[in-house]
C-alpha cells in the first residue's frame, strides 16, 4: 500500500468490496497509520484498526458516516475538511497538510493528513485518507522553542562580548556587546573566520590559532590577550573559551571577551611616574594598592577605599592579610611574596569576600613585584577588580548546559515512556542525577485532602540515586499551600514528613515547589530540595514551572485525570 501512495491514483482492479483480497486487507488492517476509505460522498466504507484506536471509535460506529463529521465536527474544522475534499476532487491529486482533528471525547490531536483519490475500473470513485499522530513531534518542537528563547535572552542581554564559533573557526553568532566592542555590524561578522574579525595583526592571528588548538584539545581557556577592533585599535581583553555542547555530536566554541583596557592602562601609567600614577589610579574603578614585603599597605586609591568602606587614614599602615582567614592569608603570602621574582614579576590571584547581604564577591588581583638593583623584592603593587559578574556569567553558562541537558532528558522520557508510574519515577531520578537537586518528590493528587501516590528520589551517601514510592497520604499544610497557589513556592525550611523519608535526610535544606497543572487540571505537585546557599534565579523558576506543566501534560496525554491518581501497586 505504501507503493500505491507514491503513485498518482493509478487504476487497480479491486474485486468485491474495496480492498478485496487477503493481501490488501491484511496490509490495511495492520498499518501503523490511521486510514479510512470513503466513497465519492465522503461516507466511510472502511476504517482500519489504528484509526479506530486513535479516534476512539469502533469500525461499526463509523461505517456509513461522513468522515468529516467523525473527526472534524466543529465549524472551523469542517470548513477546512470540506475545502480539502474540494481541492482533492477538483485537482484529482493528493492533498497533504498538518492540521488538527478531534477524538470521540473532543480532545484535539495534531495530525499529518494525506488524502488521495482513486478510481476502480468500473468508474467508481473513492479516496483514502491517512492520519499520522504528530503529538510527540509538536511537543518536541515546543520544548525546543522554549529553550531557544531562554538562551537568546541570556545571550543578548549580557554586557560581556560573546561570539560562538564552529570547529572550523567560523563565527555563527555574535551578541550586541561583541559587535559594539569590535565595531562591526552583524552582517560583516556571521560566517567569517573569527581571526579575521578580532585582529589584523599576523602575530596576534598566530597566537589566536594556537589558543584554539589548545581549546579543541580539551583545555578550557582563561587568559589575557590583545586583539584589535575594526579600526585597528588595540584592545586589552580577558579571554574565556569554554565548550558549548549542543547535542551528542555537536560542540561549539563559546568565547567571552571582557575589555580590561582600563586596567592595563593603569598598570602602564604606574611605570611612567609616581606623579602620573596618582593622577590616573584615583580615577580607576579597579582597586589599586601598594604594600611592602610584610603586607603593610603604603598606598590605596579611592576605589579601594570605597571597596573596603574605610578611609585612607584607616587603611594605610594596616596589613592586607588581616582581612582573610589564616588559611587564605597564608596562601596569599606565599603567592605574593614567594612566587614574585625578577624572572616572574607578575602573579595573579583570586579571593572572595562574603558581603553582609549574603552575596559572595570575587576579586581578582594582579600583583607586580618591584625589585632593587640586586633583584630583591622591596614592594608590591596590586591592581584588583571585581570579577563577580564574570563568575556569574560562567556559572550561568554552566547551569544553562545542565538545565538544557535535564530538559532534553525529561522530554525524552515524556516522549518514550508510556507507563505513568515509571515516567514519574524516572523524572524524579533524572532531576536528581542531571540537575543536581539533592532530593525530588512528585505527589499525585487523589481528591481534595489526599495524595494518591508519592514518588521520591534522592542522592544519599553515594553517586547512585535512591527512589521511594508511597501511597494514599493525607495532605499536610505545606502541600495544600502549593496546590492552592499557581506559582513557584520557596520554603526556607524543610518540614519533616513521615511519607517523604528521603527528604528528611536534608534538614539543612530549603525547598522549591509548584503544582502539576495542564489546561486547568491540577494533577499534584513537585518539590525539590535545595542547599541553603543555593540562589534560585528567576529563569530557573520559570523553567521549573514549565517542566511541571510538561509533566502534567504528559500525565494528561497518558490518560491520568486530575485527582485520579496513578494506577498500580506501591512498592
Automatic annotation (TrEMBL):
Which residue windows are transmembrane per the record?
none
Q: Which SUPFAM superfamilies match?
A: GAF domain-like, PYP-like sensor domain (PAS domain)
Matching entries from SMART domains are given as: PAC, PAS
Q: Start and end of every PAS domain?
A: 20-73, 147-201, 273-343
Q: Which InterPro entries match?
A: Biofilm_reg_signaling, GAF-like_dom_sf, PAC, PAS, PAS-assoc_C, PAS-like_dom_sf, PAS_4
Which PROSITE patterns does the entry link to?
Answer: PAC, PAS
Question: What is the name listed in the Swiss-Prot or TrEMBL entry for this protein?
Answer: Putative PAS/PAC sensor protein
Biological source species: Thermovirga lienii (strain ATCC BAA-1197 / DSM 17291 / Cas60314)
